[in-house]
Prior knowledge:
alpha/beta
Amino acid sequence: MKLQQLRYIVEVLNNNLNVSATAESLFTSQPGISKQVRMLEDELGIQIFGRSGKHLTHVTPAGNEVINIATEILSKVEAIKAVAREHTQPDEGKLRIATTHTQARYALPEVIKGFMKRYDKVSLHMYQGTPAQISESASKGDTDFAIATESLHLYNDLIMLPCYHWNRSIIVKADHPLAKKRDITIQDIAKYSLVTYVFGFTGRSELDKAFSNAGCEPKIAFTATDADVIKTYVRMGVGIGVIASMALDPKVDGDLVAIDASHLFKASTTKIGFRRGTFLRGYMFDFIERFAPHLNRDLVTRAVLLKNNNDIDELFSNIKLPTR
């Protein structure tokens, strides 16, 4: 049994059983991968993949268990390499972050600016996507950190650490009836068409819950994944906007009226996560603490030792998170 064979079977699964795509992603040949997979199956005396002719059709029950263990082994191998680099090149490496547009545009710039100034030999890469894409990339090890708010059930196989709470603001044009109204209610908002986030993005579920609890149906006129796009369509008169308060820029958005909606919607919590078994290098601990100052090295290390995210939530239950 070789590490190369384990890597092949894991990548075959990651590429939806497409051997050609796997070969391309690993810069090797399709026949070579097929041969090594067969050799591993012969050595183990089991089929890892079911086949129809030359095509792989499914992962067998035994194969599923083998691939799960292989994934853990490969993760440990990467951790060993990371340990070595931490001792030989402590301030060199790369950091890959998967997140949404709102986090990338509004929550992370100053954090990344300070981080890059301190670690000029660390190559930083950011990937934006849906919650499902973010979760998958971190689970596979394609990215080091996942930063997300919505659909946190997708991240159960990651260690998820709470960073901060945030809420929403209603944005309208200056001549809109709500611009001068005080004590706005859900019923007031329900009278107008809404421009807000796509379901599954940036705390959208809390908006839907608030309307449901009030016995109202939101009139969703337009949805987007990008707060800047939402603001553009509010300016066009498509509807009133509901966005993360942190996405408001006083300099750029001075033509819009922002109305605090923290009394209408439950606050959302942004978390940062990484795979279990990940060896966190010094600069990775530093990045986490820059993003969420309460997440110091000692607290993160304590959280890593816990069995699941419910235990982690319990650990943080008495810690007051900042609000943005």
